[in-house]
């Protein structure tokens, strides 16, 4: 990457993201999008890439999840103090919102990599005395409030972010929008480039992360007119962001030269959602060192020195003795099971096949899919005991997602005495690492084709955990059936109804658990450990951020 730095000669790539998972104590993330953004910052330090991150300070975080005995979710604020983790910069800029000048200041977080390179992250903040009480709250809640609140946030992120980088003296040569939340930055670039869209396109890179229509922010123009500054601005947004409503994804698509989805299948889906636009695909990855537990770090350090900065070396994991792989896994599993037993007091066992499911609780991810036929599930358990660990938050306004958590609590009660099941509250980065390293099987059951990429299974594979997933998103690329893990419903042909697809998937889920997964885990341990090693050798070595960011550099930034 040294040549890349020489080409840029002191210039920076600005990476904009509404959420960013810097570390567990800084709750400026809600899930996969923010964790990916944090991994981008981490790997940029490893590779000495000239990146500066831009986000909002989100003083009250996303939310702290509380679950009662029936699984009913309530939300508490996550108040935290930026001054404990970063420093306030002397610069201020103004963004005109609703005919008022809103002052924006910036906090600087400095990420130091393993190689001691520093990546700056600018977190924008409106909470200070010169602003009105209403405006001080704009940067409080990540994904909080109504459409008005969200659009104000996106104005601060996109417009305020550009102005803050200019005020701080950064020389930016590329602006990378991680999802459409920051795409108002394109309007600021138009103004500073004589309204020439071709010049703006040369500056902009856009990554979209969702094949779900509701995941693309859109705002009615009556609201936009109320909040922005003038009719000329409105005309510009209608020209590039859609005539009937302001679609933030469309705005980014029309003003970016490089556009990509986050898996090969997601590129195809995106081109169908937005006809006429050509997408590339750079499949997501995870930051290897950050998502490997201490037991596997120590193992890799001994056998594969240099793996942390060169995760391609994980391809040599076959040289690691099976018993050492198994012992590292047993140690990670003990930590998780002991944690669950302390939290829930249900007496989970260290030797029972443990299946984990943890991600955002929302309908298309089908968190309760494994409970669709309880008699079949009991039959599976008779073939060899299983225990299940769940975690995940439902967005405060996702009422169906909240209901699903309650349903899972109902199944926990119904299966009590047969299958031990735990639902861990307040899923965060620390709990995620415990789970992706401590379970035996990582389960993922999304409705196809709504999983854009997914990264939790990549994290599991880095720790030798076996993936068992519907073939969607990244798993379409990562699954070699029976070799790197197991697929659910992989042989479904065209022309099937959604109901038929679900029936086939469910039957395949139970059959593979009963006749493949359980016998191999309990009776053919060497074969099981071989799949664990294949997960590291064939998945972790490739599905990592080092590979991902090298592709961004050569394909999107240069």
Which helices and strands occur, and which strands form pairs?
Blueprint: H1 2-8, E1 12-17, H2 32-46, E2 51-56, E3 64-67, E4 73-76, E5 87-97, E6 100-112, E7 118-125, H3 133-136, H4 147-167, E8 172-178, H5 185-192, H6 197-203, E9 204-207, E10 218-220, H7 221-227, H8 231-241, E11 245-247, H9 248-254, E12 258-261, H10 264-273, E13 280-281, H11 294-303, H12 322-344, E14 353-358, H13 374-383, E15 386-391, H14 399-414, E16 420-424, H15 429-438, E17 441-444, H16 456-462, E18 466-469, H17 475-478, E19 485-487, H18 498-523, H19 525-540, H20 545-557
Parallel strand pairs: 1-2, 1-8, 2-7, 8-9, 9-12, 12-13, 14-15, 14-17, 15-16, 17-18, 18-19
Antiparallel strand pairs: 3-4, 5-6, 6-7, 10-11
Helix pairs in contact: 4-5, 11-12, 12-15, 13-18, 15-16, 16-19
Features:
single chain; 558 residues; alpha/beta; Rossmann fold; 2 domains; nine-stranded mixed beta sheet; six-stranded parallel beta sheet; 20 helices
Radius of gyration: 24 Å
| Residues in β-strands, percent | 15-25%
Instruction: Give the averaged pLDDT, no decimals.
Output: 95
| CATH-derived topology of the largest domain | Rossmann fold
Oligomer: single chain
Question: What's the arrangement of strands in the largest beta sheet?
Answer: 5-6-7-2-1-8-9-12-13
Number of domains: 2
The CATH H-level superfamily of the largest domain is Glycogen Phosphorylase B
- Specify the number of helices: 20
